[in-house]
Amino acid sequence: MKSTIQDKAKLVNSVFSEVYNKYDLMNDIISLGIHRVWKDKFIDWMNPSQNSSLIDVASGTGDIAKQFSLRNKNLPKITCVEPNDDMFNKGKSNLISFKNIKWVKSSAEALPAEDNTYDFYSISYGIRNVSDINKTLKEAYRVLKPGGRFMCLEFSKIDNELLNFLYKNYSKAIPAVGKYIVGSSKPYEYLINSIDSFYNQEQLLELIIKNGFTNVEYRNLSNGISAIHSGWKI
Ligand SMILES: C[S@@+](CC[C@H](N)C(=O)[O-])C[C@H]1O[C@@H](n2cnc3c(N)ncnc32)[C@H](O)[C@@H]1O
Questions:
Q1: Mean pLDDT for the chain overall
Q2: Which residues have C-beta atoms less than 6 Å from ligand 1?
Q3: Number of folded domains that form the chain
Q4: Those residues with Cβ within 8 angstroms of residue 197's Cβ, 6 or more apart along the chain or in another chain
Q5: Domain that holds residue 90
Q6: Is residue 22 within 8 Å of 179, Cβ to Cβ?
């Protein structure tokens, strides 16, 4: 079990070290820019205010922290958590002008934060990559204030047969695009496999509930290509 967890962490780390430089470009290409709309909808549902604090975990290049901040005149206090050196450096330098955003190098399974600290916890396209999802959810619960909200954006399962068929066929072409843009198809083979083997909407909802959250619900985006899960710490 321990070695499986370490193997996954190692694999995921090597994937992101391979793609970090072209990460944003590849997201725009393979999602045809739609990831930006999904991320906007994610922040819409969070509906943060100027005095909301956020811990954004698996921050990558910092899209969520940036939008959360911009919507509120850069007043919210935000902590970005990212374990991969290359993604961390890229994200931190992207958001260097945001004085309200600090960066911490750490994994989702062991957050360097006090209990009951944040109003919001966000994880966008990160939960599929963690090595221990239960530990991750327990940590999310721990660092949120009572009344705080957990928000997760992730690829999910499509609820329409025709779209599913088209999407599966489209996905097969993504590693070749990766090879052309990034120079390697492997990270994008990992991407497709990790999406395939990840939980569906209901299974993820159950896990979130099992780890202490209440009023857990989800919304599908583009017929479930992605989904947003929301839960509360009461
Ligand atoms: C697909 S990117 C998502 C980046 C960003 N949140 C976004 O929505 O564009 C996934 C990120 O999760 C990070 N990651 C991988 N394993 C992690 C873990 N155990 N804890 C926290 N972050 C992790 C990766 O290094 C990578 O930067």
A1: 96
A2: 12, 16, 57-60, 63-64, 82-84, 87, 107-109, 124-126, 129-131
A3: 1
A4: none
A5: 2-232
A6: no
